[in-house]
Fold these 3 entries.
Entry 1:
Amino acid sequence: MEAGRVARILWVSREARPGAFPAGAYRVDTEARPRAALDRIEVARAEDDPYAVCFAAWGHGWGRDEVDDLFRTAPDLFLVLEGPADTLPGHDDLGAWARPDHCLTLPLPATGALRRSLAEHLSARWLQEEADRRRVALLEAEARKDRAQRRSHERRLQILYGIVEKLHGSESLEQALHVALGEMSRFLGATTGSLLLLDGPDRLRVVEAVGPRRERIRGLEFPLEDSRVARHALAERRPILVSDIQENGRFAEAEEVVRYRPRSILSVPLFGQDEPLGVLNFGGDDPAGRFGPHDERLVVTLGRQVAVALEKAGLLEGLRRTVNESIRALAGAIEAKDPYTRGHSDRVTHYSRLIAQALGLPPAEVDVVVRAAVLHDVGKIGVPSAVLNKPARLDDHEFRLIQRHPEVGTEIVREIRAMGETLAIIRHHHERIDGRGYPDGLRGDSLPLGARILAVADTFDAMTSDRPYRQGLPNEVAYEEIERCAGTQFDPEVARVFLDNAPRWPDLEPEAPEARAASG
């Protein structure tokens, strides 16, 4: 509701007298004819200046048909029917469209003070309801937008995992790279895709390509200096994105060695152990399909996968690392909506790994817990940004939106076959040992061990991290709270292992440099 909005009242009488209602928190219009009054109500709603209350004389042109028409046109309007007490209808006589909570009868004679008081009360109530309706509409619009973004993130994640699955099924690195380039080219709408690797410090070799020029350029070697785009991408250690080379002064005159000048260019440098490996290139000719920032982020993720695969002797080991990077790409998309929890997934993953290892879990089970921890908050993609970033405590409705994120996250991850073992952990990481958690109220041993581990790690980071409405607690205070809640909120054994080992885990900070950088 915009500031300063005032409710309108329509008074219908055969003797329309301006001023019949004293001035108050409303504007009063008069109309002599019932049908003309209904037309005015409809026009006012179309102009987004609706009437809040209508006073009408029952039996003087107003009957069941008029009441039905009024509520069909304006179901949220308050109707006050005036007349002698013995003539006023009951609610059952007003028709199916009449709302009992919005239709009142006022026996006559009624004093001006009574009318004024009733008008002011109904006007104030209508204004509040109108404000609530508009607020709900805004929240629903934002939720629709967030759902669209979630579907976009899901699609990109599915593309990445589709590539990973095909790479996993390939018997040779050459075949794997060809599959990766082909899948990404189709998704981007690119005309060509190529992988150029450094052969020494100043030469490039086209080791794989897709597109109509594949056979001509595959295996081609040339000086790095001859490829201006690749040279700049490697020298600047960042992607080069040219949406339209015809409008780009920097590369418009560049003459690439392959004699192909795509209209849109995306070149991503590849590095391994901080050493340059080569570049991943995509080119497009369709002006309507120019590459954009979202494409750049997706290809950067693919570039990391390719770099890992190239650096490892075995493709399988490279795939394991690229899976983790792909998962972190989605975790980063979540945290981008909520700057106050940036790095949260990295820290919770680190704590979960330490707890799982301290419990003596086999490496394969530790890996499942770790992968679940990375994506445990993926469902927050479906939570409106206004709720995630609210600089105060959440109200009940907002908290219910937050409580849905384990279920939403489970449905997102369910589409990824390789993540099947993590689903129960993601869904139940907010359950409690005493059964008072959500979403399913599981208790005791019915909770997966991974979810019990994640509950301790997640809560510890939540307590010790700064939030919009409070500062993070010292570690010692968080330890005391976990010990106090062992046996009710937390699994006693998991809590004990955490508390016994936590002082020996220096600062409880993630070990990986990239994780420390992400948590900023």
Entry 2:
Amino acid sequence: MKTQLTLIISFILSLTISSCEKEYLDYPSTTQPTVDNYYNSSEEVYGATGLLYGRVWNRWFDKAFTSVGDVLGGTVTGVAGNSQYNSFYNFNIQSTDGLVGDTWTSCYKAAGNASVLIETFELKKEQIGEQPFLTIGIAEARLIRAFAYFYIARTFGDAPIIASPLELTKSGSSLVPRYFQADVLRFAIEDLKFAEENLPEEAYQPGRVTSYSAKGLMAKVYLYMKDYEKAKAKAKEVIDYANATGLIGLYPDYNELFTSSAVGRGNVESLFALQWTADASWDGANRFMTYAAPKPLVAPAPTNSTAGWSAVVPSIDMLDPTTGYAAGDMRRQWSVMEHGFHRDDWVNDSYPNGFTYDTTGMTTDNTYIFTGTRSNIQKYMVGTNRTGEPVTTNAHSSMPTYILRYADVLLIYAEAVMGGAGATADALALEAFNAVHTRAGLDPVTNLTMDELLHERKVEFAFEGDYWFDIQRQGLAKASEMVSNQERGTYDGNKVLSSFKATIPSGFDLYLPVPQSETVINPLLLDDPVSYYED
């Protein structure tokens, strides 16, 4: 019997490069290329690795991306009563939950596709010898595989490692145990070291990863591992390169980073992003607007969408100046839509002079907006369908999804300098922190505490699917304190708060359970984890 892990071996030699117009997003080939007759050029190799930036993440990105990173993290709320999000909202997650299975399947699909490409390119090297494009293709696949396993380790803790998916096809090889989380993280680091050494310093196409993407992601993995010296060193390499070349840096317009697909596809701040295109069908487009957009924005012509469900909205905790966006923090108006928000360029039949967010009504028609927190997420919203910014009738867009931004590297460096201590006045740590902090219109700090650093990460990366891991990595006691202080409730029709404060039942609840569909077929996943490495 085959687990979902073995299903990833639906072999991807049938990939081919897409047209230049679609850049490097893959489409299935009708010619069935093989190692013998394909992957002879950079165009063919890079066309195959393009798959790893989008479609393979489909099921995770659909709803699990937000549920794991933001619903668990408390930056998103308003989803109580929605069965697809509810268990994440109140920490009652079961192994049978669909989004648990989606996270598992999608991450292993991404890792498995990357592994098959790695093996394929290695085979091709044996045929035609060392070729720079093959080495880059391997490095690119290994970086994305590293992210997949980093996400698996953070989300599930102890988990299987499948270095060679083709081995699962051999008799008796399909049952894979869980390995210790430390080994899963080490596996990711090994991939990142290869990527660091073999990727170019500058992206060969807009949106592609580089050696500095690998360094930055390595810094993040080391920080999660609490290896502060290595995290600091890798983050510093990225910062030094950014200061020396200007090829990496903070993008000056924070709002534009998240509301323009043209900017999102390639900018100095993006070190790694998933790439989407609006008309690439359900699994190749950015669907965030489908669930998060307010209906009055996308329902009228020219978008004509039946979506825009406001299923995920900013939490009251994020909107409270004492726990979320502080007074004067410009990220609130750049990240959230509230009453009075206006965009001249978001024009539709209901708003011929530009879209205005209006909460004064009591309906959800094409004029008034009425969510449980009287707000909507603005990040990853590109507005209405228009020239240069297509939005489909399903509210799909071409907006990329950031996995690692330079702002993250700066805050990683500041935290790594603390080294687990409660505060720092180190000049370079303050410089890194203040670069992010002052971009938001806030005054620089002269001393930095860990609580301030965590708060900065909360407001900087809200709605980007990551904050839960900042809570989780603090350990059960601190994580429980952080979660219990969050307001996850919503307002009723008269704006009377129905308060809800969540609790984390136990340390086991810091991670998702292995999906029941996997453990039924592979009982080894119920056993204690074992070591992957012999040393």
Entry 3:
Amino acid sequence: MPVAGPEIQISIDGGSYAARPGEHLVDALNRARVELPQVCYHPQLGPIQTCDTCIVEVNGGLVRACATPVSEGMQVRTAVQAAQTAREEAFDRILANHLLYCTVCDNNNGNCTVHNTTKLMGVQHQNRPFQPKPYAKDETNPFYRYDPDQCILCGRCVEACQNLQVNETLTINWEDPNPRVLWDGGKPIDESSCVSCGHCVTVCPCNALMEKSMLGEAGYFTGMELPVFNSAVAIVKNVEPSVGYVPILNVSEIEAAGREGYIERTKTVCTYCGVGCSFEVWTKDRHILKIEPFDGPANGVSTCIKGKFGWDYVNSTERLTTPLIREGNGFREATWDEALGLIARRITEIRRESGPDALAFIASSKTTNEEGFLMQKLARSVVGTNNMDNCSRYCQSPATMGLWRTVGYGGDSGGIIDLEKAGLVIGIGTNTAESHPVLATRVKRAHKLRGQKLIVADLREHEMARRADLFVQPNPGTDFVWLNAVSRYILDHGLEKKDFLAQWVNGMEEFRASLEGYTLEYAEQVTGISQDKIRQIAEEVATADGTCVMWAMGVTQQMGGSETSTAISNMLLVSGNYMRPGAGSYPLRGHNNVQGASDMGAMPGFVTGYQRVDDPAVRAKYAAIWGTELPVNKGLDNHEMVHAIHEGKLRAMYLKGEEMSIVDSNANYVDAALEKLDFFVVQDVFFSHTASFADVVLPASPSLEKDGTFTNTERRIQRLYKAMEPMGGSKPDWEIIQLVANRLGAGWTYTHPSQIMDEIASLTPLYAGVNYARLEGFKSLQWPVHPDGTDTPLLFVDGFPFPDKKARLYPAEFVAPVEPPTEEYDLHFNNGRMLEHFHEGNMTFKAPGIVAKVPGTFVEVSPELAQQRGLKSGSLVRLVSRHGAVRLPVLVTNRVIGKQLYMPMNTQDAAQAVNRLTGSHADHVTHTPAYKDTAVRMEILSVDGTPPLPRTNHRFGHPTPQRGVEVERKWRRPDYVFPGSSLTMMEGGSLNARSDYVGGADD
């Protein structure tokens, strides 16, 4: 890794060049634009050292440039004959492993490393003929296939799996006479621990690993039947000895250039979780060929199964393509004009009869910033109500509240890079590897390779818990208690950061007093965590070189979610873990734009940038630009809206892109409310369960069919570009909202989302310097963004956003669960996300490959509870709470313990939704439902049944962890010699051939 410090000077082929201390020579050569082969090297993977094609002469000896650190005065020569011959020898070994048929190859798209290296080196002929491997293609995975005959054994895929994704599935059996890439030591891919993240496919330098969506689709000649294809390959190989590779490659490059006419590559941002992965989507008309990440600011080359392969929903035949109007007990298709006319008439009537506060609006955490902004503008400026919210109320509002109280900004303290830099990462109530998989890879990588400490507090033993140095399982809803005990221990033992507290923090006396009862003894009694472990956590926090705390719904979806979030921030303040890289608070945002939806003012008490609606100066600023007065009083949040409908106070609702009826808590109560609405508009990509209650359903477009921006969990604002036209009569949400507003007399004239962002920037200090030019391509900005475009990757560098620039220790209070298990309801019901599906599954259940991995929902039961009640995987049970009941199959797993249950929130059947069981009780400050505070009883309906997870699910695999490719094992093979070792260097770089030459690994 490069280190901070003054640049050094090195000599490259006689010229002087600057280099960065600690960097590898290959990076300096690439920056100097020296054309050097480097087949196995990848800047995001680091030195792999399997291909030997980057050999250069340094200070008179031959070395691999990828693994050689630069040093002051280093003398580098790339063009000497010894280095050139070594590189040629190395690449010839590679070609012996690879059947070169570029013209008819699906990967002939200008980015094939093997093809490009063949051209770069001017290879005319192979000295070592291609040797087929005695293995069949593995096509068992639904998303990609592995062809051993095309595999050059570079190890990029192994390095990516072992040390970047850190799923640790792939290895190479170097000791075998015919090495190949192995999944779980030799299992078929679909019987292994592979999570289908796509890292291996992305970094493969040739066509050995290919997306199935590319096969037969990418090129002019790639869709041929197998016998014809084999004949075409044979023709290419037969002419090579006489004409050489140069004319063959020229033909293939003409074919590749032709593909540019019909393959579009469009930058977009993932539409799933809050990590904010960005990549190019390759399309051929509406066919999605593949997702290609390479340099996303949040993800680099990383993806998860959903971001890489979960895009089938875009072309689903279930898409809404025309407006629908309720007629009797069903719906009929309508024109846009008819639907808009009905909406305008009914909104006008209800507002006239009952006032603007009889209407409510809910924005989406999945649509763009610009669309969230227009939704709240419609509510406030056109209709005249602050009854406006978004789904952050269901998950993230308590985290925001805890941070507002203490440090002033409700967002991540830094970026994902800071989680990598931290000496200690603590995860509380976050199943990070499944909910935020790409972010989790950065923590797993730092933990594995850099010795970062990891502490996890959770009810379930998920992947991050298994990897942790310390895993604790507190009693449900008691994290607040052990966190306060940690803060007290730090203060009682003088471990706090005294200088930091004195300069930057207020409220110590009141806070210390609030900790009086939180002794180690009390914490052990309430949480079930031993005093020794609480003491260990406190000492780790106090002594670590930077502590980051990640938390999510296991904290926020409790009765005391705001209090626990406050306690987390208090602990970080006491230990001095703000205002520095590799430290701070990280409330992981669940949806792709849940941060942005709140930033845009889709909240009842705030306009954009968390400016209060009851602030006269804020309202005056908006009135001056909008030309309308803003309503003064805080509106209803989405939790309050449901109660208001039942009370007859709320008559109409306009909901955009949310599955409210099954993701809000106490779903039966919510369904009953939606049935009572006088008028209900739902705007969505699919006819959701919520849409079944609507009077008008409007067909919206997903992210690939529009322009806009998303803001991820690290406050990073990124552009997405339209990759294809809207399907049928669907429209982007911003266009629909403008049509509705103008039917109500607004007179809006936006023609592109960039204009909306300009308006946002003019009204919002946090976004003041944001515009589309500054976000072009893969550029991004992390708010606050100053008017000159300077952004803020690390918050609080110059103090905290309070008048005195000091943070505030906030004396929070413990709020105990209200639904602990009882004699009647004797089981604790936990719920949340899983890797393969997203949220309720409206998008991911449209992907057949994902459905094959996880066909439906289930309930996890511990082995001990299963034994007590005679259950096994596949048993059918009925769970009954105080609020409802569901029927579903059992999965017996040691991820849960005792009488705790866990149910994924995804389902294709609304009757099985998690929230048929949860109640209406909520965090007392933010009204975020206490989804995790539910007790149930279990009724056994049948014992024998089909297990809910197929054996092809990765959870049944057996990873094979190792330290990357382990190239040293290749070097120990008896048939391997370092290229060029058969030559001795003569003065001036001339060569002398040795008679004792030993061939390469693949002779």
